[in-house]
What does this fold into?
Amino acid sequence: MKVLGTIFRIIAGLLLGVYLLILILLNFSPATLWLTKTIETALEEKLATELNIGKVEIALFDRVILHDVQLYDQQGKEMLKADLVSVKVNLPSVIRKKLEFRTISLLDSDIKLYKENKIAKPNFQFLVDAFKVKDKKEPMKLDLTINSLIVRRTNVSYDQLDQPQTPGLINFSHIKAKDLDASISLKHLTQDSLNMRVRNLSVREQSGLDLRKLQLAVSLGKKNIRVDNLNLILPNSSVKLNEFVANYKGNSLKDKIRSARWNGALRNVVISTDDIACFYSPLKDLHQTIHLDVDCKVRPQTLYFSDINLRNKDKSIVLQSDVKLDLFNHKLVNAYSKVDNVQLNKQGVNFIRAIVEKNEPKSKMLNLPLWKTLETLSANGKIGFEKNKNNFAQVHLVTNLGEANADLIWKGMSFKGDVSTKSLNLAKALSNEKLPSDLTASVSGLFDLKVKSNPNIDAKVEIEQVDVNDYIYRGLSAKALMKNHLCEVELVSTDDAINVEGQVRGYLKDEKLSDIVSSLNIHHFDPNELKLTKLSEKTVFSANVDLSPSSLDLNQASGKIDITDFNMNGAKSCYISTLSAQSQPTQRGRFFSLNSEFADLDFDGPITKQSLEKLKETVLSYI
It folds into this structure.
């Protein structure tokens, strides 16, 4: 046994000595030059292009190190330049028909890829073709392992030359990645499975994207994918996900995505608009940081996003809601949202306006005074959009300008429901003192506006109170009915200073109202109380008025007005039992006739400011 042991040690020593001798010879300068030239020539013939290698080193037979590598594409342009390329192979794995790399390293490299247009082959296609299996009778089974893929200080560019550049935005036709650093372990890769761990990945892209760190473990099979310990960090953003599992069916990637079923939750996600402005340009210069929590449930026909909690850093914007999206044939058909809470303060309003301005710089919305006057907003409710069906909204709003409620159903330009306000200050909202303030009112009914020339309306307006010209009106209401071109409106006011009832009927054609018949019963009208006159004396009017103009075009209309039981009580009193007037256009201008128990008057001529003043003086002289 001692003899056998001695013989074994001698043989092992001889083999090790021969191995070291060969290793020394291969890395001896003349041998290194010969080896470098031999590999360089062989690869040039295989790739049919120019290749320069500064030096080749062989380390323990399982590792090859290439220094100062330059590879040109078949158009003679430099495609790869690397200071060092290192490959370490597990040789026994080749015998088992399994390719296992212990280490692949790429250091201080520049990679330039491109293609002329969409249908052209990329400049690296010759690499794929050179190592493609020629014998297709028995397809090659992919079984690859890379224990450690290390990339350091590498720049990668890809261009589709016929596509325009988009400075400041991600453009997948023009990628320029700088300072790519990566440490990846590809544990197993076959035709239908992947097991990989990204220990660290960082890169900067010309659009401004700055990926500081990406870490994850991913396992992908025929029926599912699993992602663990996802950690993504940008300069001011971070996303962490402990576990993600998705199940799917089908063979193609498209089928897998469409059949995916998964549940997940994102917690404490931080997104800076500065970090993602390269994907959506209106986010530039907004300088906002958004925090997000959300639960996700994805099914082939439905997407659920529940317990959404979104807020920015100073909480000037807060959103808490649930969202459901329905799909049919993989297209969005219905969308529903239950909004538990939306809050905006002045900074939040300015942020929303900035987004609108960035996205639509010429939008007329930007000129609304509301952007300046709206300081706080809170809202809750439900909203739904259904393709080819009715949409709905149930919303409650509270702002510094007042409150509003809406319960609406609509489809296209047809609306049904009611809208109400409480203490709404329109004058302040729109920066116009002539508009009403302190408006508490409601509008309900049907508004079918699909046919613009013949709308269908059955509506009611009730104004509990409204402040106009420093007088608070109370008890105003109106009903409107429009159908088959016929229009009817009823007006009622039970206010102390203006107690009236009125009706208006007319015919709407080509968006013009004609054949108007109206009546107004004025029970009590106090213009002094309503601050419609500068007179200090209190004067109250009552009367019955019937008015029948042919149209609302004062230049062409003809019509008649009848006033009965006109009564004026105050410092001066007056009673007129009947008064009628009529007017119509003539060749000379306009004919006007006044008939009353105290005077008759006819006028025919052009209507000017002077003639109206004269007519006014004449009528007043009789009164």
About this structure: The longest helix spans residues 2-26. Residues 15-21 have pLDDT under 50 and may be disordered. The first strand starts at residue 51 and ends at 59. The chain is about 15% helix and 55% strand.
